[in-house]
Amino acid sequence: MATAPAAGHRAAVALVVPLVAGAVVSVALGVYGSLHTPTGVAVNVAGFSGPQAVKAWLATVVVVLALVQLGSALAMYGKLGGAAPAWVAPVHRWSGRLAFLVSIPVAMHCLYALGFQAFDTRVLLHSLLGCFFYGVFVAKMLLLRKDGAPGWSLPLVGGLAFTALVGLWLSASLWFFTRSGLTF
Predict the structure, then answer these.
(1) Which residue, among 148, 163, 180, has the nearest Cα to 55 in the 3D structure?
(2) Could you give the 3-state DSSP secondary structure of residue 58?
(3) What is the DSSP letter of 171?
(4) Which of 20, 50, 106, 164 maximizes the CB count within 10 A of its CB?
(5) pLDDT at 2
(6) How far apart are CA 120 and CA 170, in angstroms?
(7) What's this model's pTM, rounded to 2 decimal places?
(8) Mean pLDDT rounded to a whole number for the chain
(9) Does the pLDDT value for residue 9 go beyond 90?
(10) Burial code of 85-108, b = ≥16 C-beta within 10 A, e = fewer?
(11) 143: nearest Cα among 16, 6, 7, 2
C-alpha cells in the first residue's frame, strides 16, 4: 500500500514545476500588458491592408496548424483507429513549432501595441485567453520531458492550449472577418 501514495506524490510533484511556471508566465504577461502603455504601433506585413488583417490571418494560420496538432495527437494516442504512421510524430512536432513561431508576431501585436484591455467583454476575454494560452504552452513544453508526470496531464494541457487558441481566434480573427470580410 505504500507504493500507491508514493507514486501519486511523485506524479503531483512532477506537475508542480510546469504548472507553476505556466502560471507565472500567464500572470507576468497580464501584468506587463496592464502596466505597459500601448504604443498603437504594431507588426505589419507588406501586402496586407493593416495590422489587424495581418493579425487575423496569422492567427488563422496558427489555428489551422493547431488543428494539425489535434489530429496528429489523436493519431499518436491511437484515438483514430490503429497505430499512427511513423510520419505523424514529426508532423506533430513541426506543426507545433510552426504554430508557435507564427503566433509570436500576433502576440507581440496584442501585447505591445494594444496591451491588456478590458473595455468590453470580448476584449477582456481575448486578453485573458492570450495570457492563459502562453502559460499553458509553457506548462505543456515543460511536461513533454517530465518523467513521472501522469499520463493524462499532457493531453489535458494540450487540449487547454488548443481550446485557448480557438477562443483567441473566435474573439479576434472571426470578429475581424465578420466586420471587414475576408480582406487582406
Answers:
(1) 180
(2) helix
(3) I
(4) 106
(5) 47
(6) 15
(7) 0.85
(8) 88
(9) no
(10) eeebeebbeebbeebeebbebbbe
(11) 16
Q: In this structure, which amino acid lies at residue 52?
A: Q
User: What are 155-180's pLDDT values in tens digits?
Assistant: 999 999 999 999 999 999 999 899 87
Grid coordinates of 126: 481575448
Among 8, 12, 132, 107, residue whose Cα is nearest residue 54: 107
Tell me which residue has cell 495527437: 73
Q: Among candidates 93, 85, 98, which has minimal Cα distance to 58? A: 98
Largest Cα–Cα distance of the chain, in whole Å? 65
Q: Residue 28 gets which letter from DSSP?
A: H
Residues 6+ apart with CB under 8 A from 78: 84
Report pLDDT digits (tens) over 24-37.
999 999 999 999 88
Contact 42, 112 (CB under 8 A): yes
116-143: average pLDDT: 93
Task: Inform me whether the pLDDT recorded for 10 exceeds 80.
Answer: no
| Euclidean distance between CA atoms 46 and 25, whole angstroms | 31
